[in-house]
Design goal:
The protein is mainly beta. The protein has one domain (90-397): 3 Solenoid (Pectate Lyase C-like), CATH 2.160.20. The chain is 3% helix and 47% strand. It has two helices and 44 strands. The longest helix has 7 residues, at 36-42.
Length: 399
């Protein structure tokens, strides 16, 4: 199994690197400054300031108490910590208590052994567009604390311990193009954990967004994950992560597909005590050949799956256990290497409509201490003693 490890490497600037264009920051179309820090300090106390960054700025800069600030990079512009930095200082770019800040067309680097690349603290309406953020250590390449309406649009977040770390209450949106007037893809890749959310924090994925090649794509401990929207021109993908596509403990998962979860090493989705509602998702080809994983595992909590397809996973399509409640409406669960639906440990699954067939094991299997109900018309191989054939008491999933 491919597992990513973060290795600290001290980088010595070569003679070629020393020839990089020096930092030049233009403030409001006028004066030039040798650093982003000096340009920020010289800005007038007003809304609507604009900074244009060129070259390589080796510093740690703070945006404090700004309103309606725009920072644009020219091609090749880069912000990174000074080479000699060894003490645990704030992130390379630190945004605090600010409102409506836009950062565009920059590469921002941190140092894995010291601190992250970007932090956003107690701010709102912060947008990073067409920005690459990398090497952030355990704090995260992007660390968001108590901030709302943070948009990472067409961003590349990579090569870090946590790609995105969100500590609540907070809301972050990672999005690529989602309507015909937009272009671009957002990448969350090559991190130990792509995104990590604590209690009260929510990560939203939208549009052409790719979460790939992390150990774990998305991890939540009391935090939430949302995916939107059905009518977008492109949709998020969580794929080829070494262990799990998503690992959520507690919190809420709200997926309005079609989200694609595929090719993840053990499980596509792990849901522990989570309230999960998933519609129009495609969950396929997850799990190792040994069949020790599969599509979705729900341990306790609630799992609702509406429409969509769960297929060709190397293990069960869905495993519910330890008191979990599952509800499936019009879902297609086919061609999995284990059971289509495996119900264990005092759990119950209700099935209404859809098709559960052509799985290698039973299409629906219930342990003796578990229970199935609903309609078995679309279930081909049923091994669920006392299956309760009864009409749907809550059509459409409405309580």
């Amino acid at each position: 199994m491919r597992i990513l490890r973060v290795t600290t490497i001290c980088v010595v600037l070569s003679a070629g690197a020393a020839l990089a264009q020096p930092c030049d920051v233009i403030a409001n179309g006028g004066a030039h400054y040798p650093s982003l820090t000096s340009a920020l300090a010289a800005l007038p106390d007003r809304d609507g300031n604009h900074l244009q960054v060129s070259g390589v700025c080796q510093e740690k800069a703070s945006v404090l108490n700004h309103v309606n600030l725009r920072i644009d990079g020219t091609p090749g512009a880069r912000l990174e910590p000074p080479p000699a930095t060894t003490e645990p200082q704030p992130q390379t770019l630190n945004i605090r208590t600010s409102d409506t800040v836009t950062v565009r067309n920059l590469t921002i680097r941190g140092k894995a052994d010291v601190c992250g690349a970007v932090s956003i603290w107690q701010s709102r309406e912060v947008t990073f567009s067409d920005v690459t953020v990398e090497t952030g250590g355990s704090e995260g390449a992007v660390w968001v604390i108590e901030s709302f309406s943070v948009f990472l649009q067409n961003a590349v977040i990579q090569n870090s311990g946590n790609g995105i770390r969100v500590d609540g209450p907070a809301h972050v949106v990672l999005q690529g193009a989602w309507n015909p007037n937009q272009s671009g893809t957002a990448y969350l890749q090559n991190n130990v954990t792509g995104a990590r959310m604590s209690r009260g924090a929510v990560l939203s994925l939208r549009g052409d967004t790719l979460v790939r090649n992390n150990n774990v794509g998305v991890s939540g401990n009391g935090g939430g994950l949302s995916v939107c929207c059905v009518d977008d021109i492109a949709h998020p993908r969580i794929e080829n992560n070494a262990v799990y596509g998503a690992f959520m403990r507690g919190g809420d998962v709200q997926i309005q597909g079609p989200l694609i979860v595929q090719g993840n090493g053990i499980w596509g989705l792990v849901l522990i005590g989570t309230q999960a509602r998933i519609s129009d998702a495609l969950i396929r080809t997850n799990g190792p050949p040994q069949r020790t994983g599969g599509g979705i595992i729900a341990i306790g909590g609630l799992l609702e799956v509406t429409r969509g397809e769960i297929s060709a996973n190397q293990g069960p399509g869905i495993l519910v256990r330890d008191g979990a409640t599952g509800r499936l409406s019009s879902a297609q669960i086919t061609g999995n290497a284990g059971e289509g639906i495996d119900v264990q440990g005092l759990s119950v699954v209700s099935i209404f409509g859809g098709s559960v067939r052509d799985n290698r094991g039973f299409d629906l299997r219930c342990a003796p201490n578990s229970f199935g109900r609903g309609s078995a018309d679309g279930v081909e191989k049923l091994h669920c003693g006392g299956f309760d054939q009864s009409p749907d008491p809550t059509p459409g999933g409405k309580e």
